[in-house]
Prior knowledge:
113 residues; mainly alpha; 5 helices
Amino acid sequence: MADTLEQRCERLRQPVTELVAMSLAAVYRSQDLPELSRAIGAVRAILAEDASELPAGAFREWLPTALRNLDRMGEAVDAGDGAKSYAILTDKQDGFIRLTDGCAGFPGWSATG
Length: 113
C-alpha cells in the first residue's frame, strides 16, 4: 500500500535530521564524508519512491529538485567538498527548506522550530 504524505514525511524526519547533522559535521571534519554519503543515500532512497499516489502540492513539486540536489551533494562529497554539499542542502531557493514546506502541518516539520 502506498504511503500517505504524512507517512512519507514521518519516514523522512529522522533520515533528514541525520543528513543535516552529517552535512554540517562534514564541513569541518572530512572524516565524516563517508557517513554523509550514507545519509544522502538513505534520504534519496525514500524520496525516490513512487510518489504518484501522493497529493499534488509542494512536496511533489520539489521532488525532482530534491533528487538533483542529492545527486549534486553526492558529487560534492565524492570530490571531498563538504562545504559545497552543505551549501546545496541549505540553499534558500531550492534546498531542503522546501521539504519543510512540503511536510508542513505534520509532526516534526516546522520552518520555525
